[in-house]
Specification:
binds ligand BES; six-stranded mixed sheet; binds zinc ion; globular; alpha+beta; five-stranded mixed sheet
Length: 651
């Protein structure tokens, strides 16, 4: 869609919104008013196309997926069937699904009668549309298929790549447009689907999914295939397809309390359970803020180290990187983040990937509120300052990298892989926007608004325009002057950070800044007042160090604080970036271990970047050597990010 078309849409909306506002004025603030606003919002969302899906849901829409899949670790494929329940227009002749890198073996109706289908040419980013001819009144299609090695959602790990080293592992990562590489369905976050699944795996392994039914092997023998067993799952609430997730491995479970617990490779279970013992408190805090937890259980699954993200908010089962397991619970804000997505993202979902900030910006805001509730204002303030610092760096980098439009909260992503828009902008600028609103309206009113927003749109998908329409009616009360003075348009569609941003401050981090200054001015690090520093304080300490640092200063820092041996991967990462930048060679073995033992893109990408940028050739040489060793173990997404940096693409 072109920008002028958006402008037209906004104009026609003005009429609708005035009508909605009028209804409120006439009848007072009754639930009917929200209903009127919600109808307006629905109209907006329904007419917003998702440029990253071939589906035409107005004609035929997938409402339920029933998977029957076998995980074959020998051939590294999932194979079986996806039976899709459809809601169709009376005259619908076909249904269009998204697929990518799938071998489609056949399509039938519910009774097993073959249906005609075509697999379109498609494109490298979107994959291929699977168009299935529908007999009159058909409500179900069954697709028989298998995944291929070119798929981007599944990573199959050798035993050596796991913590336990004895069994293989498989996990999926659907967000943003990868689900179509393991399930042929309408892969758009605006097309919510319920699902059920039967997953057949080798007898030694356990399957879990983002659904109910975890850890209940039904012991069912699969005829003709000895040594396998099946697991059954049900997700009875409609979710966006990027949230369908599976993991298979030597997975065990430890309950934290009645409602939540931890899944991990068995050898990791105790450590994982210790690390995430506060999760129940976080759930309580979250529910107090924005309404009842909507998904039944909340569990965390610790993945093997190649998991490419910090965390992924798969419903009922957050996936997390093992790099947050420090032994001292210092990085649990990541779980607060993924938990917050249970509302912002999973309950109310970005309808297109151009609305990604509705997921991530809301979640960063909400995450920090949970942290404040559970760990206090000081810790929450520190995290806010770190986020804001990162945002400023990102805005500067994007501006000079030719991606200036990625500094917008609502960028035009047509023809662009939404993965490329994975920066701090939707996260931190989005959260900053909400904090500006909070500061203006006060917490009580803003919280009431957000709670109402989640209640009004639960189990629905939302666009930026839809959100703005709701905001106008339910928070701004259609006060145009107020909307202008708050610079709402500039926040959402502009490139810069508007000047009414509330710059976060933290007394504790200001104090850290003083210690950095003292050190730079020549103080012996032993004399610095850093006793009992928490993780954010150390992170600030390291990221505030000036570019003028000398190798001698690096040596004294390491001698005093032992950063090279840090068990906290966030601190180690910041230290390794400094070490590369300033040529501190004693840290290089630790750097190599770090890059070859975990594959989180957020850590790998900047480190390879720093290595490639060293003035002498040692950096690029080392980057190439380490990458040659590490790349086969990295997830597709991390390879995609690092390949162009190291420029050493290998098959
Ligand atoms: N939903 C994201 C992960 C994601 C984003 C996957 C885009 C695929 C595409 C998740 O909630 C997230 O934001 N994870 C962060 C951690 C968080 C604490 C900021 C990450 O992985 O770094
Ligand atoms: Zn997130």
């Amino acid at each position: 869609m072109k920008s002028w078309m958006r402008a037209t849409t906004t104009l026609t909306l003005a009429g609708l919104l005035a009508a909605a506002a009028g209804a409120i004025v006439l009848s007072g603030c009754t639930p009917k008013d929200s209903t009127t606003a919600s109808a307006t919002v629905k109209a907006i969302v329904d007419r917003t196309p998702d440029d990253h899906s071939y589906a035409k849901p107005q004609e035929a829409r997938v409402t339920h997926i029933d998977l029957d899949l076998t995980a074959d670790f020998e051939s590294r494929t999932l194979r079986g069937t996806a039976s899709l329940t459809l809601e169709t227009q009376a005259n619908a002749k076909q249904v269009i699904l998204d697929t990518k890198a799938l071998d489609i073996e056949g399509v039938t109706d519910a009774s097993g009668a073959p249906l005609k289908y075509t697999l379109g040419q498609g494109d490298p980013m979107m994959g291929r549309p699977l168009t299935i001819n529908l007999p009159q009144g058909a409500q179900k299609v069954v697709v028989r298929y298998r995944t291929t090695k070119d798929g981007t959602a599944l990573q199959w790990l050798d035993p050596a790549q796991t913590a336990g080293k004895a069994q293989p592992f498989l996990f999926s990562q659907g967000e943003e447009i990868n689900t179509r590489t393991w399930i042929p369905t309408q892969d758009s976050p605006a097309i919510r689907q319920t699902y059920s699944a039967r997953i057949v795996v080798p007898h030694a392994l356990t399957a879990v999914m983002s659904a109910d039914g975890k850890l209940t092997p039904d012991g069912e023998a699969v005829p003709g295939e000895a040594g396998e067993h099946a697991f059954r799952f049900t997700m009875s609430k409609p979710i966006a397809p990027y949230l369908i997730a599976v993991a298979v491995g030597d997975i065990g479970f430890k309950a934290e309390d009645e409602h939540n617990g931890v899944y991990a490779e068995k050898v990791m279970l105790d450590k994982a359970a210790y690390e995430f013992a506060d999760v129940g408190k976080m759930v309580d805090a979250a529910q107090k803020l924005y309404g009842p937890y909507p998904w039944g259980r909340y569990d965390v699954l610790v993945l093997p180290p190649s998991f490419p993200y910090g965390g992924m908010e798969n419903p009922t089962l957050t996936f997390v990187t093992p790099t947050v397991i420090t032994g001292d619970r210092s990085l649990v804000s990541l779980v607060a983040h993924e938990l917050a997505h249970s509302w912002s993202g999973n309950l109310v979902t970005n309808a297109t990937w151009e609305d990604f900030w509705l997921n991530e910006g809301f979640t960063v805001y909400f995450e920090n509120r949970i942290m404040e509730q559970v760990y206090g204002k000081d810790r929450a303030d520190m995290l806010k300052v770190l986020g804001y610092q990162e945002l400023q760096g990102t805005l500067k980098d994007l501006d000079s990298s030719g991606h200036a439009n990625f500094t917008e909260l609502h960028p035009d992503l047509k023809g662009i892989n939404p993965d490329d828009y994975f920066t701090d902008v939707p996260y931190e600028k989005g959260a900053a926007f909400l904090r500006m609103l909070e500061a203006h309206f006060g917490r009580a009113r803003f919280d009431a608004y957000l709670k109402g927003y989640f209640a009004r749109y639960k189990f629905k998908s939302m666009t930026t325009e839809g959100f703005l329409a709701d905001l106008r009616v339910n928070l701004l009360h259609n006060d145009d002057d107020l909307e202008k003075s708050l610079k709402i348009h500039e926040w959402i569609y502009g490139k810069d950070l508007p000047d009414n941003v509330v710059v976060p401050t933290s007394a504790a981090l200001d104090e850290v800044g003083q210690q950095v200054k003292a050190f730079v001015a020549g103080a012996d690090p032993k004399t610095l007042n850093v006793t009992d520093y928490s993780s954010p304080q150390w992170q600030y300490f390291l990221t505030q160090m000036p570019d003028t640092l000398t190798v001698d200063q690096m040596v004294t820092l390491d001698k005093t604080f032992d950063f090279t041996q840090s068990h906290n991967d966030e601190i180690l990462f910041d230290w390794l970036v400094l070490s590369v930048k300033h040529g501190y060679r004693p840290a290089l073995p630790a750097l190599e271990t770090f890059l070859t033992s975990q594959g989180r893109a957020k850590f790998c990408t900047p480190l390879y970047q720093a290595l490639m940028k060293t003035p002498d050739p040692w950096g690029p040489q080392l980057a190439k050597r380490i990458y040659a060793e590490a790349r086969p173990g990295y997830h597709f997404l991390t390879r995609e990010a690092v390949d162009p940096i190291v420029n050493a693409k290998q098959p």
